[in-house]
Design brief:
Radius of gyration: 25 Å
Number of helices: 12
Distance between the termini: 44 Å
Shape: globular
Number of strands: 38
Largest sheet: 12 strands, mixed
Strand content: 25-35%
Structural class: alpha/beta
Oligomer: single chain
Length: about 575
């Protein structure tokens, strides 16, 4: 088919469906979308509550647990043992399909009554209750979207790392803190978009470096301070002169580093490496990636975010690993095949419009099933009955579509409506990547969860903490510390926080000051160093006379650096000529 322009139902802006997009939709036999890629992404992100945790009790055994679902939700939550035990049967919640009601009206009723798994916990979790979207983690705390970590705290989108704090989107780091978009760093702090660095701090886009500080765009260097090569003795003297053990001096250094990022740095148009035919940002070891972000070891992916390994031939994913031919889904993992419009499917095949399925096949509009097949609305059918019924339901979805309060029409081929999410917009990754205020969210018809005020007995304000870690008393672990943001919803501020014994040991060992903000506020501070999940068409800004182009470079590209930003953005070739 030819390229086609459509008007998005949600934002009312035009968007383009390319011929290759139509080819994909035809391949999996779904109609083209009526929402633009950004609004589709927001719609999925509203289903990705990663960081908001609540105290609840198991609806079956009464055990106390930490859940990603509020106790205000109508659906009960079950602990791990009960969920996988034999004391309940999700098929007992099955319903006959009612052709007098819209599909999504009925699906919402099923989702709100069928028990939910208390959190996204998989694999072998050891002493890691306060985590979510968590797989094979040990001794982790307030760590989310995490795989194969040990002794990691206050971090998100972190994989295969050890003994680290306050990191975001990192892999294989150890003894690190405040690493953002990094990989394979060791004993490195306040690092952004850096790889294979050791014993460094306040660095940006450095690779294979050791003992570097307040430096950027360095390659294979050591003892570099403010981008100047020094002797070992000179470097150690300069580093010690920063007095980073004191919070007041650490903050000055951080502010100076931020000024460097704003005024001095030449930026590569995108963080894309070892990849071919890719547009987006933070893409590695992949090929044929279109308008996607945080993609690793995958191919033929479009309009997606957080696709971490061995995924191919898929569109519109939000969190995926090891899958093929997946469309408009959240958290599809562990050899998932041909799942469309789903939320949390593990090892499932040819399932649609379902939530929390494991090892299922051919399930349509189901919730909470394990090892099931040929089910509709949690009701068992024969193989022949199933396929006949599914076609009737698809036809019914088109003849009697669901229409939400804003007049948006949801037929077959669209993900769950915005108002079906069990989480508020402000609890989810949607708020992280597309932040808006409560009033705007409600005007758009997005769910919003009022933050419950908690009466913490604050014993000390963060401003009263000792300036130097050398003066920090062991008794700090007994204090309830007041966060300066005092519950600000823009940062999902928790109002108060504690310093654990492990935290204190880490800061003393690394000679770093105690944090002045709660973990949620620190998370939002880290997000400021990341570009939005958007792309703009721009031209290289290089005008260097010693490069291969004549006059100003004319190379065009897609970049997540907005045109109104002051940053200097180079194409790949000009950036390489400048850095190497």
């Amino acid at each position: 088919m030819n390229q086609e322009t459509k008007n998005c139902q949600n934002c009312k802006k035009d968007f383009t469906i390319e011929p290759e997009d139509f080819n994909f939709y035809e391949k999996i036999k779904v109609p083209p979308p009526t929402f633009c890629p950004e609004c589709r992404m927001i719609r999925r992100l509203i289903w990705r509550n990663v960081r908001s945790l609540y105290k609840r009790t198991c609806g079956l055994c009464g055990k106390s647990l930490i859940s990603m679902y509020s106790d205000k939700d109508t659906a009960p939550v079950y602990c791990h043992d009960c969920w996988y035990g034999d004391k309940w049967n999700p098929l007992s919640y099955g319903k006959e399909y009612d052709f007098s009601k819209p599909f999504f009206t009925q699906l919402k009723e099923l989702f709100n009554t069928t028990p939910r798994f208390f959190a996204y916990h998989l694999g072998n979790l050891v002493r890691s209750d306060f985590t979510n979207y968590s797989v094979d983690n040990k001794d982790c705390y307030l760590t989310f979207a995490a795989l194969g970590n040990e002794d990691v705290k206050y971090s998100e989108s972190i994989d295969k790392s050890k003994n680290s704090l306050d990191c975001y989107l990192v892999q294989k780091v150890e003894n690190c803190s405040y690493n953002i978009d990094c990989e394979a760093n060791y004993n490195t702090h306040y690092a952004i978009k850096s790889r294979n660095c050791i014993d460094s701090c306040f660095i940006y886009n450095c690779v294979n470096c050791s003992n570097c500080c307040l430096s950027y765009n360095q390659r294979n260097q050591q003892y570099v301070f403010k981008n100047k090569k020094l002797t070992k003795e000179e470097y150690q003297k300069s580093l010690s002169g920063l007095n980073l053990e004191k919070y007041s001096e650490f903050k000055k250094t951080q502010d100076y580093f931020d000024l460097i990022l704003e005024k001095e740095i030449i930026y590569r148009y995108a963080q894309i490496y070892n990849s071919a035919n890719a547009t987006g940002d933070t893409i590695g070891n992949s090929k044929n990636i279109l308008d996607s972000f945080e993609v690793q070891n995958s191919e033929n992916i479009a309009y997606s975010v957080r696709v971490i390994e061995n995924t191919k031939d898929s569109y519109d994913l939000t969190g995926a690993a090891s899958g093929e031919l997946i469309y408009e889904s959240v958290a599809a993992s562990f050899v998932t095949f041909k799942d469309y419009f789903c939320h949390i499917t593990l090892g499932s095949k040819e399932c649609q419009y379902s939530s929390i399925l494991k090892n299922c096949s051919n399930c349509f509009g189901c919730a909470g099933l394990t090892n099931a097949q040929y089910c509709i609305f949690n009701k068992q059918y024969s193989k022949e009955e199933y396929f006949e019924m599914v076609e009737k339901i698809k036809e019914h979805m088109n003849k009697m579509p669901y229409v939400d309060q804003k007049g948006r029409i949801f037929k077959y081929g669209e993900f769950f409506p915005y108002d079906m999410s069990p989480s508020g917009y402000n609890e989810t990754n949607a708020h992280d990547f597309f932040p808006i205020k409560e009033k705007e969210a409600l005007e758009k018809g997005y769910p919003w969860k009022k933050k419950e005020k908690k009466d913490y007995k604050i014993t000390i304000n963060s401003s009263e903490l000792s300036d130097s870690i050398l003066d920090a008393s062991e008794t700090i672990i007994d204090e309830v510390i007041g966060c300066p943001n005092s519950g600000d919803q823009d940062f999902q501020c928790s109002s108060a926080y504690r310093i654990t014994q492990d935290d204190l040991n880490f800061y003393k060992q690394k000679n770093l000051p105690l944090p002045r903000y709660c973990p949620n506020c620190r998370h939002y501070q880290r997000l400021k160093y990341r570009n939005p999940l958007k792309l703009w068409h721009r031209t290289c800004m290089c005008d260097k006379t010693n490069h291969t182009h004549k006059g100003k470079c004319s190379v065009e590209f897609e970049t997540s650096y907005a045109p109104d930003r002051p940053d200097i953005i180079y194409c790949e070739k000009c950036y390489q000529q400048e850095v190497y």
